[in-house]
Amino acid sequence: MAELWQWVLDHGVVVITYIFLAIDVILRILGLVVVPRNRRPGSALAWLMAIMIFPLLGFPLYLLLGKAQLPRKRREKQKVINRLMHVRAHDIPDSELDADSPSWLQSAVNLNRELGAFPLTGNNSADLEIDYDTSLSRMAEDIRAAESEVHVLFFAMALDTTTQDFFDALAESAARGVKVRVLYDHWASLTHGSVYRAMRRHLDAHGIEHYPMMPVKPFRDGAFQRPDLRNHRKLLMIDGQIGWMGSQNLIAAHYNKRANIRRGLHWQETMARFRGPIVSEMNLLFATDWYYESAEMLSEADLVQAPVDTSGTYECQLVPSGPGFVFENNLALFNQLFYSADRRICAVSPYFVPDESMLAAIVTAARRGVEVELFVSEIGDQFLVFHAQRSYYSELLAAGVKIWLYRAPTILHAKHVTIDDSVTVIGSSNMDIRSFLLDMESSMMVGGTDFIQKMYDVEDVYRSRSRQLTLEEWEQRPVPMRLLDNLCRLASAVV
Questions:
Q1: In sequence order, what E strands does 85-233 have?
Q2: Which is nearest to 321 in space by CA: 115, 156, 120?
Q3: What is the DSSP letter of 98?
Q4: Residue 87: its pLDDT value, please?
Q5: Are 212 and 184 in contact (CB under 8 A)?
Q6: Do 268 and 410 contact (CB within 8 A), yes or no?
Q7: Is the peptide bond before 409 cis (omega within 30 degrees of 0)?
Q8: pTM
Q9: Residue 220: per-residue pLDDT
Q10: What b-and-e string marks burial along 144-170, b requiring 16 or more CB atoms within 10 Å of the CB?
Q11: C-alpha 329: how far from chain center
Q12: What region, left, alpha or beta, does residue 416 occupy, with left being phi > 0 and alpha being psi -120 to 50 degrees?
């Protein structure tokens, strides 16, 4: 044994080299066996390329970020929630669609229910708000009118000069005996530093119960947890009668970041304010996230309230999605609507990085004569995603898709789709792989001619603030920029 050890010491460089080569080969073989299982081909190829080029780095990263799966305890809670929702969904039939609704809209409703969405409800009303400060002011006004409960859930939350009135409204309502519950994504809010801490101190000072969602505690569940699974929803419900949802976070329009302020960046949002039976469904979705973080199961009797206002004419269906669901609910819904469109598609997404199926659906729609418009920002705030989405522009433009670039220095952060004159989907979901696989999202499918017209009016505003990108202009961009876009596209597939 001593002689063997001495030989190892004498030939250390050779031994280390062979060990390194053995590990290198083993990791490559493990990658070929493990990575392709139950994974879309593009993602599998991207991971395999990373592992084959840098096995000592790529394989550990795959173990860290390779599975879009909730922690075990959360999966167990998700099963409980799914069983309860299935029982409730069985007992509550969908509302009847209007007689003039296209046949494919009923198919979309059925698809959503199969994937875990809430029932279609009728007699809802809704309006839109696209001014950043006005939406915050209106939400604060609704909170101040609360009588029993306020439920708040936002991806990013902070107490700053822009949101001060909103948090003051929460404190005033809590002081009047209104039950206020607050949820916010841990990482998305924590990264804002002092204004995040100010928010927590404010909530604590006024006795408001609050929890961070998806807390970044890698080994909290006794096993490693993927740290970039986030809750991206934005919801506000008051007394089960008024519900807000859309794209806006509860933070200043420049996100209090020095780089954004220096560049003059600020965010353009779209929020929808609902009244009617759909608000109870929004309350139920909030209750699922509340259960995940607090372990408190809120009673259905408290969450589902008889609507005071049933004068509306909109049919609404709430569609949750995220890693807690077996299928990619939001992607399935978008694709079904794109293939069903007969005349017109308008898609608004700040981060547009479609998978192969969505790209095919959009290109096919454009080539069969559907007028397709895509609104994106002229500049981006996320380097990788911004350049990845640009890699799709050539194919989209060649197919006849009209691409509108919302002018800098504004980031168009709104997220919604309109199909023909029939249906709108609005909510928190981007059209990128992160929103399809990694983020917990909420989308609202709305049917109603009047609401469609409101969306058209919003799209007209966007159009007036944008410039149209042409294929000729795009094909003249520098070769290095094309290479960068394509490289980022490849990297974006690693999920």
A1: 121-129, 149-154, 179-185, 209-213, 230-231
A2: 115
A3: P
A4: 67
A5: yes
A6: yes
A7: yes
A8: 0.89
A9: 58
A10: bebeebbbbbbbbbbbbebbebbbbbb
A11: 11
A12: beta
pLDDT of 227: 75
Residue in 287, 323, 297, 296 with CA at minimum distance from that of residue 72: 323
* Ranges of residues in the chain whose predicted pLDDT is under 70: 1-15, 18, 20, 24, 27, 30-48, 58-59, 62-68, 86-93, 218-225, 326, 493-495
pLDDT attached to residue 249 = 98
What is the pLDDT, as a whole number, of residue 40?
67
Is 329-492 a CATH 3.30.870.10 domain?
yes
The neighbouring-strand residues paired with 410 are 266
Architecture of domain 72-96+123-313: 2-Layer Sandwich (3.30)
Q: Domain extents for the chain?
A: 2-65, 72-96+123-313, 329-492
In whole angstroms, what is the distance from residue 44 CA to residue 33 CA? 11
List Cβ<8 Å contacts ≥24 apart for 301-309. Answer: 302/149, 303/240, 304/240, 304/280, 305/239, 305/240, 305/241, 305/279, 305/280, 307/123, 307/240, 307/241, 307/275, 307/276, 307/277, 307/279, 307/280, 308/241, 309/125, 309/241, 309/275, 309/276
